[in-house]
Amino acid sequence: MHSNNTIEKSFTTEHAMLFFKEIEEVAAGSFAIHAKYAMLRDIFKRIVNQALSQTSINFIGLFAKVDYLMKQLDVPTDTAQLIHDTRRMLNAIHTTSEDELTTSLPHDLKATTLLVELLCESMAPTSLTAYFPTTNRKRRWSKLDAKVLRCVVEYWDDQYIYATEEQNASSVKVCYGTQNEYLWLGGKADWSYLKQILHKNTQINLVHIRIEDGVYMPELIIYEPDYLIDITAVASCFETYAESPYVHLLNMLKPPPNTVHIHLGNLAGQFLDETIHNKHTSFNESIIDFFHHNAISLTSCEDLKDTQTVARFYSDARQQQQNIANLIGEVLPQEVKEFDARAVVLEPTFFSEVLGIQGRLDLLHVKNGDITIIEQKSGKGAFVPFPTDDFNPNRPEPQEKHLVQLSLYRALFNYEFGKRADQLRHFMLLYSKYSEGLVSIANMPQLTLRAIRMRNLLTWLNISCTNDGFNILTSLTPEILNRNHLTGRLWVQWVRPELERTLNPISQASTLERAYYLRFLRFISKEHLLSKIGNKTKDDSGFAAAWLDTLEDKRAAGNIYEELTIESFGENGDTIERLQLKFSTARSVDTSNFRLGDIVILYPYRHGEVPNACAQMVHRASISNITEAGVEVVLRNPQTDHRLFLSAEDTRWAIEHDMFESSVKSLYSGLHSFLSTPQPRRDLILCQRKPTVDESITLAGDYGAFNQLVLHAKQARDLFLVIGPPGTGKTSFALLNILKEELTNPNANVLLLSYTNRAVDEICSKLVESNIDFLRIGSELNCEKTFKPHLLCNRATTCPNAHAVANLISNTRVFCATTTALNANIHLLKIKHFDLAIIDEASQILEPHLIGLLSARTSITQNSISRFVLIGDHKQLPAVVQQTAEESQVDEPELHAIHLTNCRLSLFERLLTNCKATDGYNPHLVYMLTRQGRMHQEIAEFSNIEFYGSKLAVVPLPHQTLPPDTDELSELKIQNSKYKYPNGIVQILNAHRIAFIASPRVGNTTAMKTNQVEAEIIAATVMQIFSSTADSFDEAQTIGIIVPYRNQIATIRNAIDAAYRTMFGNADSKHDEAQRNKLHNITIDTVERYQGSQRDYIIYGFTVRHPYQLRFLTNNTFEEDGMRIDRKLNVAMTRARLHLIMVGNPEVLQQDETFSRLINFAKQRDAYYDIPAEKYCAGNFLVNTDKE
Q: Of the residues 98, 282, 592, 819, which has the maximum number of CB atoms within 10 A of its CB?
């Protein structure tokens, strides 16, 4: 067997022994067969991931990973097929009968063991091999799917691709040369470009295959199909000057367009919706509604500042409304006899894993299986240079890019959904500018192949730039891009100048600026790629998980709501806007990772089948409410056809996470704007000049203990950094006092930003308390109800005209938003200048998310933001990054010189490093808050010593110094207790502010990310706290439970239910139901979700049962000044005000040095308890509370 150094380093004999033990526990265990397979699948995936943990390659799906390993290890074909057979069986658990699984299990145990043996050349123990079958498995994977076949490329020549196909893991020979007439259409298409873009391990889809003399002859070949490309992105590559993927690349860099034509197009889309929904809206009503929903972009549109342009806009819009009403309401029903407006679906979304594309149609009409599609265009048709005698100016010639869109939609219905040509009845373009603008489009096979070619090239370019960098941008010129040799007025006056505006900043940038720009472009692109295909460090990540993951994977990851039924739908007139979906009665506790405001996809499937988002159209929506009984969603595109949701009895609905690429586009264009921002701002960001400080400035107000902080923030004329450890009042004191001082200048405007909506809600609460007026940018779904009147979209509804909106924006001095919301509304920074921006949670915000905001300009020479204050704590959780630390590391020496060593670092952290000298931080630029008012001093002690160098002190507030026996718990006498002494759990809480409860080592169970014993210990602790605080119990403030895995959440909720029944019986009164609801509403979540929160009692359940799980638990550590900072542990421990209870297995945890010190810390304070779990849960133990 061939040796591979990377695999050898990743997979040791120690790993092999641990995996052998786990496999044997599955074989010997008495679990149900489906449970055994769930365990075996988890083990198989961890084996593969461990073997690949040190490779630099990102793999899409388990097939690609296993195939790579087999080839790297030179595994014989028959052996590789055995392992692939097991991979397939592990993916098919949900659809395989118990009898089949029982028969197959010994073979799959053997193949999984064989994989381990191959990886480290260790032999399995005989105690394990005794469970193996003596005969080979009967192979059942012989039938090929003629619709599509996934393959991994091995090598290729001018005519053939040699690959491994997924179904049988066998070698196939694929003809992509001219001999394949299905591909080449008799010379009308060209697939030779594949030779230049293929590489070893590329995944391809072979679509509609014919096999001739053993050679595979597909109709289409799709390059890296899991990387979905939007159909509009493909169409955008067909420009007058070029048919090239580089067109789309440049489009990504351009600022978001804000022209009268863009607004006319959006308004025309609204007219279409109103016509289909039969709203009979007047023109004036439509205009007003449109303005209220687009206040910022319309107010900032330069075109609309000219009265003649405004008049023409109204005239054109009125004409388009009339044309749409006529063409859809009168012409279409006459021309398409089966057309029924009630059967129309507006803007349905489709995902095609077969073709590697996604798209959102403007209008879909389905009746009796027949399809009519209409794409609306508000602009002009194609330019006709030499009109013929029968030329009609009211009938547009379609633009090629628009034809490309329809061709790909036709291909989607054909190849993904199997629709016959006779079912694809009408594909039309609606040019609403023209009175006769309805254009029927025939099938165009040659254009379809050009579109597929462009889809493949665009995928290749995106992946290539991600892996190899964007240096190509430094050599591109308008002349190189002008592949169609466009000349004349269009080229000279419009196209070339626009290309120069995009390309010139790159060529004119300094060496440092260009290095910074190119490195972050690559970083953004990599994050974008991984958000699509998944990352190496987290299973079940990436949008492709929607079709790559099994249902079991999605359930375990909390990535799906399934078995939903529609209970009701909320209507607005004749349209359906909201859906209430009911959870299945068989469903256990909610373990999903869905939250209010999340963007999701919703789609139906037949009961008993596996939900599949690629099987039909999906609805895009946002979650507006989640209860014990169900979930409510708001459709992004309200519908008219009630039949869409009045489904058959056996119809069920599924919800999965969605991904919007518009937010990524803002990062590309924001980074590009950095190259054009005024030089002083560029130099500041790149640490090429010292930030300015004016010590002559004095305070106008008095802020007591915070005077020095506010003064230094005011004197800093460029930037100021505030380090805010947990509980030190970053928002309540630092942000608010700096804001109040700035507002003493009657002409000052201030922008308040944060990373999360929860933090913005907190900022809003402080503004309301201080009676400071403000406007908030964002959506209602992500805004606390109290602050919705402050949303700009709501305040704008009170403005009668554009002038009033402009005055509202101009006269409001304080704006607040998340960075994501402001990036999506970047035009605000074109019309509004801010003297100061205060950015909270700055250590959680990646640099590209801020750089576009800090580079924005109100004019060529003036930045939109004059000064900025960043508030954060780099010792708490950082921004979430998809890439590994190795992938995001920076190698360029010139970037190291400005402290940019890794793209995963926040701008806050990089500037903090730049402000640091040997004797500490520059006090004129950095201030550290050191008095915390949250944790009791005993709770804060460990974090203070370990992570903050003992610099923190309590305020002190009353609750921070009192002994524990002054709490409500001290009075507790457990009713119905059969013991003569108080409950032992209560004794612990009466004796200590911080306690560590040792849990026993748990063996293999069906779910490796749960711990039943710890769940019961936590539940028993919750019940004692709950029963003692019944009168004052507040589900939002009293108890919080933190765990590392989502799977453990359900385990704990079930344990709490059981503990409640044990303590109070099965009472069924309204009071009892209210009590149960209180317990249900206790927040049990991961530490990432808890950052920024606090509770009186925090219970931290470590959950881990095996040493390998420590890597996940400690994956946010770094060293500073000789201290090892564990960010997760720091955040978890510092959420507690009065009591912190930690539950974990010391045998496992002590293998990490920080956890070992934590356990010793508890022992030194006699706060370490190793009590048998059964006794602990019953409270049947005594605590020695004698104190020296």
A: 819
Query: Over the chain, what is the mean pLDDT?
Result: 91
Q: For residue 394, how many C-alpha atoms fall within 13 Å in the half-sphere facing its CB?
A: 6
674 and 810 housed in the same domain: yes
Between CA 657 and CA 631 the distance in angstroms is: 14
Q: Which CATH number do you get for residue 876?
A: 3.40.50.300
Q: Report, in this order, helix, strand and coil percent for the chain, each rounded to 5.
A: 45, 20, 35
Whether residue 873 is found in the same domain as residue 990? no
Domain interval for residue 408:
251-381+392-453
Write the CB contacts of 99 (distance below 8 Å, at least 6 apart in sequence). Answer: none
Q: Are 976 and 1133 a contacting pair, CB within 8 Å?
A: no
Q: What is the 3-state secondary structure (H, E, C) of 1105-1163?
A: CCHHHHHHHCCCEEEECCEEEEHHHHHHHCCEEEEEEEEECHHHHCCCHHHHHHHHHHH
Sequence-ordered alpha helix ranges (H) in 379-486? 400-411, 445-468, 478-481
The pLDDT of residue 140 is 55
Task: Give yes or no for residue 975 having a pLDDT over 50.
Answer: no
Helix-helix angle 1012-1028:984-991, to 10 degrees: 70
Compute the distance between CA of residue 221 and CA of residue 355 in angstroms, rounded to an integer. Answer: 8
* H helix intervals, 373-444: 400-411
pLDDT of residue 972: 43
Vertex 166, ends 162 and 172: CA angle to 5°? 25
In degrees, to the nearest 5, what angle opens at C-alpha 677 toward C-alphas 671 and 678? 155
Total domains in the chain come to 5
Q: Supply 410's token pair.
A: 């036709």
Residue bearing tokens 């059981």: 1058
Indicate the DSSP class of residue 139.
Answer: P
Q: Do residues 668 and 651 share a domain?
A: no
* Alpha-carbon distances, residue 626 vs 598, 631, 975, 1170 (angstroms): 11, 4, 35, 38
Tell how strand 370-377 and strand 363-367 pair up.
antiparallel
CA distance 200 to 995: 54
Beta-carbon contacts of residue 126 (< 8 Å; ≥ 6 apart): none
Residue 174 lies in a domain: no
Instruction: Label residue 2 by pLDDT band (50, 70, 90).
Output: very low
Q: Look at residue 318 and give its three-state secondary structure.
A: helix
Q: Is 772 exposed, middle or buried (0-12, 13-18, 19+ CB in 10 A)?
A: middle
Contact 652, 563 (CB under 8 A): yes
For residues 1039 and 1136, give the distance between their C-alpha atoms in angstroms, rounded to a whole number: 9
Is 856 in the same domain as 921? yes
Report the CATH number at residue 427: 3.90.320
Residues 1052, 1113 within the same domain:
yes
- By CB neighbour count within 10 A (0-12 exposed, 13-18 middle, 19+ buried), where does 1057 fall? middle
- Predicted pLDDT at 1059: 92
Question: What pLDDT does residue 144 have?
Answer: 52
The helix/strand/coil state of 160 is strand
- Can you read off the two tokens belonging to residue 495? 């196209």
**971 with 1067, same domain?**
yes
Whether 809 is covered by a domain: the verdict is: yes
* Rounded CA separation 16/1101 (Å): 28
Cβ-in-10-Å burial (0-12, 13-18, 19+) of 257 comes to: exposed
Cα-based angle 714, 718, 724 (whole degrees, multiple of 5): 65
Q: Is 605 a member of any domain? A: yes
Tell me, yes or no, whether 1008 and 1128 share the same domain: yes
In-domain check, residue 328: yes
At position 73, the amino acid (one-letter code) is: L
